[in-house]
Amino acid sequence: MMKPEPAVHAAGQDLETAALRWATLAILLGTFVGNLGVSIANVALPSIAQDLHAQAAQAIWVVNAYQLAMVVAVLPLASVGEKFGYKRVFMAGLFVFTLASLLCAVAPNLEALVAARVLQGLGGACVSTIVPALLRAVFPPRLVGAGIGYLALTVAVSAAIGPSVAAAVLSHASWRWLFGLNLPLALIAIVLAARILPRSRPLARSFDLGGAVLNAVTLTLFVIGASELGDAAQRGLAALLLVLGCLSALLLVRHQRGRAAPLLPLDLLRIPVLRLSTGTSIASYTAQTVALLALPFLLITEMGKSAAATGLLMTPWPLVIVVVAPLSGKLADRFDSERIGALGLALFTLGLATLALLPAAPSDMDIVWRVTLCGIGFGLFQTPNNRLLLTSAPPERSGAAGGLMTMARMVGMTGGAALATVMLDLYGTRGAGTALGIAAGVAGLGLLVAVLRMRQGPSAAPA
Fold this sequence. Notes:
With about 475 residues, the chain is mostly helical. The chain is globular. The chain has helices at about 15-50, 55-60, 60-85, 85-105, 110-140, 145-170, 175-180, 180-195, 210-230, 235-255, 265-270, 270-300, 305-315, 315-335, 335-355, 365-390, 400-425, 430-455. α1 runs parallel beside α6, α12 (about 270-300) packs antiparallel against α18 (about 430-455) and α16 (about 365-390) runs antiparallel to α17 (about 400-425). The protein has two domains: about 15-200, MFS general substrate transporter like domains (Growth Hormone, Chain: A, Up-down Bundle); about 265-455, Up-down Bundle (Growth Hormone, Chain: A), CATH 1.20.1250. The longest helix is centred in the first third of the chain and has 35 residues, at about 15-50. The two termini are about 30 Å apart.
């Protein structure tokens, strides 16, 4: 039987074993629901377009609206979490996500569906931004890496099974049921969170509305500009949007300077280990996104593999992350996170380089061992690096650190998608191999940053 909500102290909550398990389940179930909602929507786009009589270019906004809402909301919600308490924002996000899922399921047209997806993205941003701070709050300092490993495991599992779940549902029912799947899981997460998650002490600070507006404008310009780079006809507009985004970013930085707890966490980026860990995170997600987008074109178009065979050949990548990520979290709690992360990034870089150098007619095993090496390297790197990102910040800035962790992932994925799109647009499918080489180079740059981080000396998490 679950115990009443535990008390709070400044540095976190050393929950009893049973309470820690229930709290972890609530946090990870909320994460699972949010990530499953992303992966199943991608597969459902053709069915949605057909049912709602929309063009493919219009239907893609079902995905874009969710991602854009998440990107824009991450940093403001991190600030809101510190101001009002992580539990409150996490639960509010689950409520919003659940309501939005229901609205998606009954949307009468594409416009209503896109609007509901914006709302769903805001709810998802609440959850993904606050989860790292909640994990730091409920896990004892010696086990924070294990908690982040469980988070990585949850994200990998939801991403891996999402397409299969969507395919199974769509073969028997309407796409609307895909959004209905979220409802029972989200309700269970809400009940568990309300009952067992500890309250964090809200911090007395005002909400920076001007900073939030500048943040929204900056990120919207960058995301839309990056997404248009792959269209040769829109490349001039994309360049203009990116230039405007840079100008808006400069205004944002100027606006945030001198603030004690800025929305844009400039105070955290002054901490060398945290700054360098953010850089390695952006590089790794950029490299992974480029590779995962380019590899199918290389295997199908250039090497003649079938779509089904390509899916099977790429499956080891997420599968080994499921195994390696929680293991690397436990290793990071016991040993040097910097060295473990650098080793993982070195293996990831090597795996990408070997993929870029695939022979013209490789055997399936030639492909599988290289893909597996990429998954092992990324899984070994990701959790220790995220542990450093989270624990290098003062406890009262855990929300901002979690937001920075999420933002680094989104920036890397957005940049990686833009880079892969440009390469494929410029060189066609022949550019897939070159894109893999670029991915290896980006990962190599991240490795150099990781080595520089090691020279800073062992990091010590704040109490």
